[in-house]
Amino acid sequence: MNQPELVIIGGGPAGLAAAIAARKAGVEDLLVLEREDHLGGILNQCIHNGFGLHTFGEELTGPEYAARYMARARELDIPCYTGATVLDLGRDKTITALSPDRGLFQLKPRAVILAMGCRERPRGALNIPGFRPAGVYTAGTAQRLVNLEGKMPGRRVVILGSGDIGLIMARRMTLEGAKVEAVAELLPYSGGLQRNIVQCLQDFGIPLLLSHTVVEVHGQRRVTGVTLAQVENGRPIPGTEQYYPCDTLLLSCGLLPENELSRQAGVELSPVTGGPVVSEELETSIPGVFAAGNVLHVHDLVDFVSQEATAAGENAAAYLRGEAPAGEALPIQTGAGVRYTVPAALDKGRTGPVTLRFRVDRPYKKKAVVLTAEGQPVLRRVRPVLAPGEMETLTLTPAQAAACRKAETLTLSLEEVSP
After folding, report:
1. pTM, whole model, 2 decimals?
2. Of 203, 231, 253, which one is at a domain's C-terminal end?
3. Do residue 163 and residue 110 come from a single domain?
4. What confidence tens digit (pLDDT) does each residue in 107-120 have?
5. Which domain holds residue 70?
6. Which of 290, 296, 304, 306 is found 20 to 30 A from 390 (Cα to Cα)?
7. What is the distance between the alpha carbons of residues 47 and 40, in angstroms, rounded to a whole number?
């Protein structure tokens, strides 16, 4: 087997965008590994529209969005192994993989791009009391059953968690004839996009119960109902319990970057995002290993995944050409209201604009997003609304980026706006 210079692990939107960018940047010897039988990743089961507005200027379904990248990969003659599961990634970038037609094989590329996506938080991580009856699914599993396999998980549904997949499945189950009794959310605010709250719940009259959680699942062989209760400081309030009859409980309680391979390789992971800590080049703590998309931090729009992965592909190509980072890393500190930033540091030797992506820790109204260099504001943007479910983006001009790179400390935080 030929040994490629660059291997992209994952053939979803991030992996395809990274491979296309790397090929355009001059990398001829590359390979995409995808464990499913088809490219496209999670987009294949996302048959609703709303994808591609930033990238293509039009609304597409998930499969349509993925098809455009797959077509471009074919035009560029990018080799892709489907049905290939990566078992191990070594610190020296050795990849051990398994596929039905090639058996067990190893690759030793000079550079690797991690694009494995994310997975759902399972029931076992939620500590829900009760038996383990049939009828409890993650929202993504239910989406696959309905959209790809044509099977209905149930006819009377309660959804725990108001992440975007849960909101979308509330609408999808309703359209397929099921009755969605309620969507319960542990936090006092929704974790999904505002447009999904409106289009998937309010338009269909589905109640969203904030500060509520499931305290008991009823039924032994099959779910017969759940008990919901109000929550204060993360604990159920006695006396607020209410029984909801249902035959299905869908869990939409957060997504986790798929980083088992990263952990095996010894990549430094962020305790906040669960993804790798990356430099401005989207390079991890292991030289030559890059990361992009939901494996890095969970995105709300696939367009941003593609943008980030394109940068990762271009940076991997630069690495293969021997263009190492030009200077020392300048960490970006997070101040009031900001959970994390990607990248986590700037390269003091680089030039040109910088795109920072970040999330806030709770909903805010009319706050100023301020980037300071040694205490002096470099960039200030007033935002009327900020929410944890919507990723924020700041683009620094070359002049602003240059001012930041000269500093010794950088901090991104939220500040009050003067009346």
Report:
1. 0.93
2. 253
3. no
4. 999 999 999 999 98
5. 1-120+255-325
6. 290
7. 12
The tokens for 268 are: 């430094």
Strand order in the sheet with 6-9: 80-82, 30-34, 6-9, 111-114, 289-291
Examine the domain organization and report whether 317 and 333 are in the same domain. no
pLDDT higher than threshold 70 for residue 1: no
- Whichever domain contains 371, its CATH number is 2.60.40
Backbone φ, ψ for residue 148 (5° rounding): -105, -35
Cα(106)–Cα(125) distance, rounded to whole angstroms? 34
- Let me know whether 17 and 54 are in one domain: yes
The H-or-E segment that residue 316 falls in is helix 302-320
Q: Which of 277, 268, 296, 279 is nearest to 350 (CA)?
A: 279
pLDDT band at 125 (very low <50, low <70, confident <90, very high): low
Tell whether 142 and 56 lie within a shared domain. no
Let me know if 30 is exposed, middle or buried by CB neighbors in 10 A (0-12, 13-18, 19+).
buried
Specify whether 315 is located in the same domain as 347: no
pLDDT-derived band at 126 (thresholds 50, 70, 90) equals low
Last residue of a domain, one of 278, 308, 325: 325
Q: Is residue 233 domain-shared with residue 352, that is, in the same domain? A: no
The verdict on 216 and 107 lying in the same domain is no
The residues near 226 (Cβ < 8 Å, ≥ 6 apart) are 158, 214, 216, 217, 218, 243, 244, 246, 249
Inter-helix orientation angle 302-320/62-75, to 10°: 20
The residues, any chain, with a CB within 8 Å of residue 178's CB and separated by 6 or more, are 152, 154, 155, 156, 157, 248
Whether 105 and 129 map to the same domain: the answer is no
- Among residues 139, 69, 19, which one has the least CA distance to residue 302? 69
State the helix-helix crossing angle for 164-175 and 139-147, rounded to 10 degrees: 40
User: Domain tally for the chain?
Assistant: 3
Residue 289 neighbours by CB under 8 Å, 6+ apart: 93, 111, 112, 113, 114, 265, 267, 283
In tens, the pLDDT along 327-362 reads: 788 999 999 999 999 999 999 888 889 999 999 999
- The pLDDT assigned to 328 comes to 85
Rounded CA separation 184/174 (Å): 16
pLDDT tens digit sequence for 392-407: 999 999 999 999 999 9
Q: How far is CA 119 from the centre of its chain?
A: 9
The CATH number linked to 97 is 3.50.50.60
Amino acid at 402: A
